[in-house]
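User: Run a structure prediction on this.
Assistant: Running it now.
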Amino acid sequence: MFPQLVTVRHRRSSGRRLRLYLPVVPVLVVLSPLLLLAAAAGLVACVVFRVSPVGALCGIWQLVWALPGTRFEIEQGRTSVLVSVR
């Protein structure tokens, strides 16, 4: 299942908390011009490093498909960041 929502929680060293909800599809629509540039750069990188573009695309698709349910948690001192993909 394609990820639908990314939740980012940030706790600053002062104790203040910030929570952001990012819907994936609208963000992709807004950033689509940059995605086209990234796709072109990826195609050039595949040619330079002699990697199959179809194989690279399959690998990226499998990575995106496996993202729902993933949690990234980073803590350093009194600051922490939690990213949850649903």
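The chain has a mean pLDDT of 92.
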